[in-house]
Automatic annotation (TrEMBL):
This is Reverse transcriptase Ty1/copia-type domain-containing protein. Residues 1-145 form the Reverse transcriptase Ty1/copia-type domain. It holds the Pfam family RVT_2. InterPro entries: DNA/RNA_pol_sf, Rev_trsase/Diguanyl_cyclase, RVT_2.
């Protein structure tokens, strides 16, 4: 780099500075760090995952090592303790490492070991968000979103510039909580839709989410060991649920065996002309996620069932995946149709009907009552420590 202004060496103005370390302060620093670490790991026999660039894996004989990298924070999971020690020794020759022992805390996510698995939670992070919002001692709510009203961009008086900044800050922080709390995915998705022009009604909804989190701070996502290798998903959509643009909200939950590993609650990009169309778009999104999960499992040589199972509570969308006849109301989803239909025809995807009352993904598309919220949390393997 050129010499900084005011710090030039006399009579050597044409000289440049050579950087020994490019970790912090430069825009290209993360890329330089990742490149150097990646080269080192590949020399040691690791392979970068094509499905997730932050994941590296090593397989040789009975030894299997997974390494997940986030800038300079690294998680190592290995089938051999001796192999882990040897890996750390090799990395110490090039990098200054600090071994923190067993995994307990990573990027704000707490990992607690229980009898039959682990529980991922963010109690400390949620506590910090509540303190920042001044709601650490607030009254507890048993639902994150009211079922009796639908938020609209026209509802309520606009917030001041300062309050709007605070709104965006709190909502942005809450987005990170959804990494271990899928039960608030839909409420957070809803309040995120008003970041451009928040009102007092929207801020009230955010405070309700905070009050719900205050009462469920110790809740976390449980992951257990199980012999089941079935990759399955539940897909649902709330047709024309948004009062502003009448777009639908689609959601899905993907399980590996009994464990929830991926979920989504998102407003669809286009307006659907029928409930079947909205449900089929949600089916296509869930199918894409299933393909990604299966690709990742194949890369890691993790055994899983070849045929993924997808549950849908819309009979029209379920039949349409197996019936090659187009109807007038479904001609606008031809791309999604062919995408899903191809997987079904190749017998790589099994789409089945499930009653709405048993639909696990229902909470990703609409606000639920108190009893439904508790049932939703139980279905997603959310437990209280």
């Amino acid at each position: 780099m050129i010499q900084p202004p005011g710090y030039e060496v006399k009579d050597k103005y044409h000289y440049v500075c050579k950087l020994d370390k490019a970790l912090y302060g430069l825009k290209q620093a993360p890329r330089a760090w990742y490149s150097r670490l990646s080269v080192k790991l590949q020399r040691l026999g690791f392979r970068p995952s094509k499905a997730d660039t932050s994941l590296f894996f090593y397989r040789k004989g009975r030894i299997t090592i997974f390494m997940l990298v986030y800038v300079d924070d690294i998680i190592v999971a290995s089938s051999s303790q001796d192999a882990t020690k040897a890996l750390l020794e090799d990395l110490r020759r090039d990098f200054a490492l600090k071994d923190l022992g067993d995994l307990h805390y990573f990027l704000g996510i707490e990992v607690k070991r229980v009898k039959d698995g682990i529980v991922l939670s963010q109690e400390k992070y949620v506590s910090d968000v509540l303190k920042r919002a001044g709601m650490m001692n607030c009254k507890v709510s048993n639902m994150p979103l009211s079922t009796s009203e639908k938020l609209s961009k026209e509802e309520g008086e606009p917030l001041s510039a300062e309050d709007s900044t605070n709104y965006r800050s709190v909502v942005g922080a809450l987005q990170y909580v959804t990494l271990t709390r899928p039960d608030i995915s839909f409420p957070i998705n809803k309040v995120c839709q008003f970041l451009h022009a928040p009102t007092f009604a929207h801020w009230t909804a955010v405070k309700r989410i905070l009050r719900y989190l205050r009462g469920t701070m110790s809740t976390g996502l449980k992951v257990t060991r199980n012999k089941s290798t079935l990759v399955s998903a539940f897909s649902d959509a709330d047709w024309a649920g948004c009062p502003d643009d009448r777009r639908s909200t689609g959601g899905f939950a993907v399980f590996f065996g009994p464990n929830l590993i991926s979920w989504s609650a998102r407003k669809q990009a286009t307006v659907s002309r029928s409930s079947t169309e909205a449900e089929y778009k949600a089916l296509a999104n869930a199918t894409a996620e299933l393909i990604w999960v299966q690709t990742l499992l194949n890369e890691l040589h993790v055994n899983h069932s070849l045929v993924a199972r997808l549950w849908c509570d819309n009979i029209g969308a379920t039949y349409l995946s197996a019936n090659p006849v187009f109807h007038a109301r479904t001609k606008y989803i031809e791309v999604d149709y062919h995408f899903v239909r191809e997987r079904v025809a190749k017998k790589l995807l099994d789409i089945r009907f499930i009653p709405t009352n048993d639909q696990v993904a229902d909470g990703f598309t609409k606000a639920l009552s108190w009893r439904k919220v508790e049932e939703f949390k139980n279905n997603l393997n959310l437990v209280k420590l």
